[in-house]
Amino acid sequence: MAQLKYKRVLLKISGEALAGDKHFGFDFDVVSKVCDVIKKCTDMGVQMGVVIGGGNFWRGVKNGEGYIERTRADHMGMLATAMNCMAVADVLEQKGVDVRVQTALEIKEVAEPYIRARAIRHLEKGRVVLFGCGIGSPFFSTDTAAVLRAAEINADVILLAKNIDGVYNADPAKDANAIKYDAISYEDVLAQHLAVMDSTATSLSMDNHIPVLVFALKDPENIIRAVEGEKIGTIVGEN
Ligand code: UDP
After folding, report:
1. Cα 73 to middle of ligand 1, angstroms
2. Which of 26, 56, 59 maximizes ligand 1 atoms within 8 Å of its Cβ, making it the mutation to test the pocket?
């Protein structure tokens, strides 16, 4: 069996990634492939906490601005993340993976409330824990939730699975000369305003010394490459 570089990880999947090319709702082919890989990782002995975004249904500012008061729009975004967790939990269960959903906003009839000690116990028992509703407060992102939960569960790394294969010095969609970094410091991400994640998430990972590996989810097997320590994407850390 391949050596594991990381034993406990926090995987962040954007909501939009779950929609595939449809950009809204679910592409169950994509969801299934991602769940297959999560299963493989747990079979390899990796403890998996997962934060899922909500952008495939609703983003507070992007979709609500000018129509819905910010706080309420963000509450809607957090509920969207809970729906994503429920869908992914169900597909994982269909594949025989033991999974728990914990939400930062209480929806007791459908998910456990977030309780750190309980989450860690689940991880130790080999269960995948899906963290829903971000951090439970408006004005934050699920990237920040990923960093917060990673800090709380003492994750070795944050695996930031994106629709781009790493961190670039410019937007590669707009600039053909954009260069990808293999590694970059938190300070440089902040100073250069690189859009890898929002500044709140970047500074929280910097303050808590949690490395963030940014890579493309397009090939979900990248998640396995990441936990085995293969050189993919860009590592954001104390470089
Ligand atoms: N959100 C929030 N607080 C949080 C996390 C998320 O208010 O702690 C809301 C916010 O409106 C955000 C939406 O939920 O736009 C969906 O999350 P995000 O945009 O991070 O999802 P992603 O882009 O990863 O799909």
Report:
1. 10
2. 59
In this structure, which amino acid lies at residue 106? E
| CB of 156 sitting under 6 A from ligand 1 | no
With vertex at residue 86, the alpha carbon angle to CA 82 and CA 89, rounded to the nearest 5 degrees, is 130
Compute the distance between CA of residue 147 and CA of residue 155 in angstroms, rounded to an integer: 9
- At residue 181, the pLDDT reads 97
Q: Tell me if the pTM is above 0.85.
A: yes
Task: Give the chain's length.
Answer: 239
Inter-residue contact 167 to 214 (CB < 8 Å): yes
User: Which among 142, 163, 200, 212 is the best mutation to test ligand 1's pocket, defined by most ligand atoms within 8 Å of the CB?
Assistant: 142
Average pLDDT over residues 95-106: 98
pLDDT at residue 96 is higher than 70: yes
The SS3 call for residue 183 is strand
Say which CATH topology domain 8-237 has.
Carbamate kinase (3.40.1160)
